[in-house]
Design goal:
This protein is mostly beta strands. The protein has no helices and 4 strands.
Length: about 45
């Protein structure tokens, strides 16, 4: 297994509040070091 550090993923955060949960994420989708799409849906409402 390689010991190189690899950084992948996206920025997502969540807060637990008295009346629910607040979640937020960025909108950009990347392909390596390039921005592939500026508006990408990463959070989806579920019931």
């Amino acid at each position: 297994m390689s010991k190189e550090l690899k950084q992948t993923g996206t920025t997502t955060t969540a807060l637990v509040c008295k009346n629910g949960v607040v979640m937020a994420t960025e909108h950009r989708a990347t392909a390596g070091t390039l921005i592939a799409h500026k508006k990408t849906q990463k959070l989806f409402k579920i019931d």
